């Protein structure tokens, strides 16, 4: 039997916080021989490590969007259309951990 190696992937399934990983067994590998019989192979041990939860904080204390009075007719009939007089763009300041991936839809 030849073993070429493998890998272990930790998958996030809930909220994450920074801290040390607890050492111990995290899985087992069962091997099938050329005779078709399954045998205990090895136990996968986590020997340590650290999780660094990446996050951002908002640095803009307040955003105000004054749009005034707008006639209902200005909205038209297309869903999602905003009248030009009602459009207002502002910047939201973020302070993020190095390596944080920010995506906007």
TrEMBL record:
* Source species of the chain: Enterobacter cloacae
User: What name appears for this protein in its UniProt entry?
Assistant: Putative fimbrial protein
Q: Please name the Gene3D superfamilies in this protein's record.
A: 2.60.40.3310
